[in-house]
Amino acid sequence: MDIKGYKCPNCGAAAAFTQQTAPVNAENRAQDTEPESAQAENPQPKPAENANFAPKIENHLIKAIIAAVCCCLPFGIVAIVYAAQVDPKFGAKDFAGAMEASKKANLWGNLAIGLGVLVYVIWAILYSTIFVAAFTEAFNAAGGSF
């Protein structure tokens, strides 16, 4: 059999060959070509040990959008800008840049939510103070009774 011209009998594609110059098929893949001692000396790296492996980095986009809509628009927009930078940087394997953008998106999102809650609390205090003062004045103007 001519090895160079070997084609797959099922699909007709040129077949790949192992170091043994045999066509790669399910049987060849299932067989270990290395002795056990060689496998013990050179274990395959796990994904966590691989230098190219990086965990998914959260982009905080939902938090940024909620912060912009419900709390503080200017800080929320900054958070959205940083959140939108995370995935493209991660896709370009700029893991440090993606992590930095994620941290900034989280920071600006938290600032927007915190500032928004603070403004709402101050507004509620002022509104209730004005309401109580107006009610008290109206009550006193009516002679102390309604």
State the end-to-end CA separation: 110 Å
- Total domains, how many? 2
Mean pLDDT, as a whole number? 78
> How many whole angstroms does the radius of gyration measure?
33 Å
Per DSSP, the total helix count is 5
Strand content: under 5%
Q: What is the makeup of the main sheet?
A: none
Q: Kindly name the structural category.
A: mainly alpha
Low-confidence stretches: 17-22
Helix residue percentage: 55-70%
Large-scale geometry: rod-shaped
Assembly status:
single chain
- Number of E strands: 0
Order of helices and strands: HHHHH
In short:
With 146 residues, the chain is mostly helical.
List keywords for this structure.
146 residues; 2 domains; rod-shaped; mainly alpha
What does this structure look like?
The chain is mainly alpha-helical and 146 residues long. The protein has two domains: 1-44, no CATH class; 61-141. Helices cover 60% and strands 0% of the residues. Helix 3 (61-71) packs antiparallel against helix 4 (73-91), helix 3 packs parallel to helix 5 and helix 4 packs antiparallel against helix 5. The longest helix is centred in the C-terminal third of the chain and has 47 residues, at 95-141. Residues 17-22 have low confidence and may be disordered.
